[in-house]
Batch of 2 targets.
Target 1
Amino acid sequence: MNRKVVHKVFWAWGFEREERWLNDMAACGWNLVDTTGVRYVFEQGTPGEYRYKLELLENLPSTAESERYLRFMEDAGIQQVAACGRWVYFRRRAEDGPFDLFSDLDSRIAHLRRIRTLLFTVIGVEVIAIMLQLVAFGHVDAPAFKQAMGPVLSQGDALFLVIAAILLVLLVVMVAQTVRVARRIDRLKKERAIRE
């Protein structure tokens, strides 16, 4: 079978964009068979044979709870194609009709909350990394630090500040997207309240 590898980056909050891209690839006859989250492996097949969906599970796919859920999905004709951490890539034959992993507002809200929690975790790591960079910059002149970091320091003291600045930009992006996800959750909650 003909294979194709594509390298592409999608952010956690853009999972719907990633789904659209995978479905566009499937419409052209390229079916996803594996991914690492940035490296996608496709096999050539019948155009439009599959539809793809993504989900961030509560736990890793190897846990008992997740394994039960994945067996349930398989029994429903939905195949797990790949997993990257807690992200799971599902597909279903297009001839079986459209499918949605989140059939009600509560499941959509729960999924967005898992994404928001993931973003909070990344934000925490970013803050710690920025603080460590700034602390390192503050100790650049210490003899023990110079001895340990000699090769890095040869690039200039500003390296620490540049890295901190890059991390700060990423932090701002993460916070903005976390707010965006939180707003989507609020909209869905309001919609749920109206329906009740």
Target 2
Amino acid sequence: MKISKNFEFEEFCFSQTALQLNIDNKPDTAAIINITRLCDNVMQKIRDHFRAPVLISSAFRCEKLNNAVGGAKNSQHLSGQAVDFTVQGYSIQQVFLWCKDNLLFDQLILEKNLWVHISFNYFYNRREVLRYDGSKYLAVQ
């Protein structure tokens, strides 16, 4: 089902790990609303700016899937508020910096220089900017 000009709802729920482990990764109504808000307020804006495919590696995760991938117990992926992604043809740094300077978000994390994590909370956004090197999180100015 299409939820924006360039995104299908299924992109936010697909997981290779869920397929391999036979985990039903279906969001509840609240998570569906959050996914839609995340798409409208963040992801479609990224797609429109870069005019290139946005490749989602992880978005919504049910609790069983989140546990299977070693996600944090309080991960915003559990509520459909977070997505990990890359943009085809652009460096992770370019995407990270553009998001930092141009979007409203709750958290923005440069993850091991491999992907960008961004979350959006409809009611309150901290604009927390971090780098994760694989062992620790560091604040970014």
